[in-house]
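Run log // design_07
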């Protein structure tokens, strides 16, 4: 069994309040969970309007499958028009 994780930092340019940020967070987290059946949550910078930090964890029986899934999830989040991916930290 292999567990891989990553910490992603995103910039939300149009967020002028925490309410604006929460709308983006909720939509992005829900869509990612549904599409990939993965663990994802906001893990830091909760009080910063334009910065979003997400933690992602992938578990698989094979390392190559887990690595491919994690890369696919990162590409999916990167393609989101509401937030710009600025940093990826694989843990």
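design_07 sequence
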């Amino acid at each position: 069994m292999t567990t891989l994780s990553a910490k992603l930092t995103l910039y939300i340019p149009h967020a002028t309040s925490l309410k604006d940020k929460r709308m983006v967070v909720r939509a992005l987290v829900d869509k990612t969970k549904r599409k990939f059946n993965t663990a994802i949550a906001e893990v830091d910078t909760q009080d910063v309007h334009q910065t979003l930090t997400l933690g992602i964890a992938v578990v698989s029986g094979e390392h190559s499958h887990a690595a491919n899934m994690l890369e696919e999830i990162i590409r999916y989040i990167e393609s989101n028009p509401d937030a710009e991916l600025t940093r990826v930290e694989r843990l």
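The mean pLDDT is 93.
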